[in-house]
Amino acid sequence: MDFAAMQKQYPAQVPTEVHSHQNRWDPYVDNGGTSLAIAGADYVIVASDTRQSNGGYSINSRTEPKAFKLSNNVVLATSGFAADAKRLVEVLEQNALTYFYKHNKQMTAPAMAQMLSNTLYGRRFFPYYVFPILAGVDAQGKGALFAYDPVGNMERVNYQAYGSAAALVQPFLDNVVGFKNQRGADHNRLIERDEAMRFAVDAFTSATERDIYTGDWLDIFVIDKDGVKHEKRELKHD
Amino acid sequence: MNRIAEQLTLSASDNPNNQLDGGSSNTCGTGVQFELASGNNPAAFTQQYTDVKSEKDARIKMDHGTTTLAFKFKHGVLVATDSRATSGNVIASQSVKKVIEINPYLLGTMAGGAADCSFWERVLGMECRLYELRNKKRISVAAASKLLANLVYRYKGMGLSMGTMVAGWDESGPGLYYVDSEGQRVVNDLFSVGSGSTFAYGVLDSHYRFDMSVEEAKDLGRRAIYHATHRDAYSGGIVRMYWVKEDGWVAYPLEDVGELYFRYHPEIKLTHAAESPLTAQRAA
Q1: What is the pLDDT of residue B278?
Q2: Which run of H or E residues covers position A75?
Q3: Portion 55-84 of A in contact with B at CB < 8 A
Q4: How far apart are CA B259 and CA B264, in angstroms?
Q5: Which of A131, A116, A134, A136 shows the shortest CA–CA distance to A44?
Q6: Under 8 Å between Cβ of B165 and B108
């Protein structure tokens, strides 16, 4: 076997153009953090942490809110890409204001929910990288909670967790708020306000322990027919 | 470029504002505007970030829906679905409504992208209502399904994922069409759509007869969905069932597939029956 002769006859094929996808500019960043919401018979509790990361090992801010009051009785909790979340909140506020000017009344929570779904779908081909949870009270005064995927699929639920620690928090809520996998539990029971508050805070202290992107401070909003109350609690900063 | 040609072409280079117009003609006007990424191939951009099948680490995961079925029989159309939505490998919800109530006599099902199905079937509901107002009569199932097919055909290649069945009762009796985002629209007596459809077809094809009673049809639909949820990881939750008859559809109470397992396998006993949660599980 004359390998030298073979080499000449069959030179190695080296591609002259290499299209590397690793250095391409990426419009999206996952800024981390977690949000949850629990709805009851006459209230909704929304909790989200305030740590913003850069998708890697650095923290951008320890005090950047992820939940925003959109009106006197509606709060939007976000997670995912902070810039898209910020823009989404601006668009929703503008739409709510336009509605008020056109109809001379505030948008109700279910109306805002449908509007958010359509807004998200309007960017179906360049999605908002946001996982929103919209919270408010409906016309009967009952807690209304709507969970979405990034392109607008809407479902009204009693509790939801999204974000970097969602896989840790959602199963916990499934068990204690949804009574899943509990024998003899009354699945139609909606938990009380103080129970929901304890579960929300416990979920975050636990998530902070095991998720690097969750921690620092916790924003808690309580919405009922009288309006929105806000409080802040400290979480571990490590 | 003239208006008709403009409406029929989808290339971004003809559209300097990078907006996809949902059309504003009488018959399929929705006036929906979509923002697209800039560049010559916005479809490839979207696909890179959202298409789960082609790009394994596509980060924006949309909810997908999964086993649905519908069949015509002597007394109408029976529609049955599961209720699981998955977002990648995570179960996003076990209580999704995959039967979309377009109006009191027309139903649409959801399989594929959940947002795609809910949005376009809602637009379809609007178009059907406009048809009623313009023509002073109810729309036929054939026309409704064609409206939907034409709506989504304009976005062919852009990554929409929608496999839906339109079921209803009109002047020519029970109607059932399958419409999808690839542009297909076909008519038949029996369909199953979604990742669990192969399992459902096995059960349906073995026992389907046109002259079934309503109870037999319900039992067949329930079993087919149950078998699909048992074998398909992306299907599960509860069985939602609807019966479309002459004066409209009726919804049936939901059944948890976990409980159906023990109902269909009476020989299997729970090992720790006292601690089992399964006998009292009901989703809202």
Answers
A1: 58
A2: strand A74-77
A3: none
A4: 9
A5: A136
A6: yes
The two counts, helices (H) then strands (E), for chain B are 7, 17
What pLDDT is stored for residue B30 in this prediction?
55
| Distance, CA of B52 to CA of B61 (rounded, Å) | 7
Distance (Å) of CA B233 to CA A135, B59, B89: 31, 21, 9
Q: How far is CA B58 from the centre of its chain?
A: 23
Low-confidence ranges of chain B (pLDDT < 50): 1, 5, 10-19, 21-29, 54-55, 280-284
Q: Give me the residues of chain A with pLDDT under 70, please.
A: 1-22
Token readout for A111 is 């109306």
Q: Which helix (H) or strand (E) holds B242?
A: strand B238-245
SS3 label, residue B12 = helix
Kindly name the residue from B66, B68, B81, B229 that is annotated as catalytic. B66
Burial of B237 (0-12, 13-18, 19+ CB in 10 A): buried
Q: Is B66 a catalytic residue?
A: yes
Tell me the nearest-neighbour CA distance from B211 into chain A, angstroms: 37
- ipTM for the predicted complex: 0.84
Q: How many helices (H) and strands (E) does chain A have?
A: 5, 12
Interface contact flag, B36 A126, Cβ < 8 Å: yes
Contacts of B114 in chain A (CB under 8 A): 149, 153
> Strand pairing of B173-180 and B163-170?
antiparallel
Total beta-carbon pairs less than 8 A apart between chain A and chain B: 102
Whether the CB of A11 is below 8 Å from some CB of chain B: the reply is no
Contacts of A180 in chain B (CB under 8 A): 277, 281
C-beta separation of A235 from A49 below 8 A: yes
At A174 the three-state DSSP class reads helix
Amino acid B24: pLDDT: 35
Distance between CA atoms of B162 and A123, rounded to whole angstroms?
17
Within a 10 A sphere around the Cβ of A192, how many other Cβ atoms? 12
Distance from CA of B47 to the nearest CA of A (A): 9
Cα–Cα distance, B268 to B91 (Å, whole number): 27
In whole angstroms, what is the distance from residue A178 CA to residue A188 CA? 8
pTM of the model: 0.85
Is the Cβ pair A125, B276 closer than 8 Å? no
Half-sphere exposure of A96 (CA within 13 A, CB side): 24
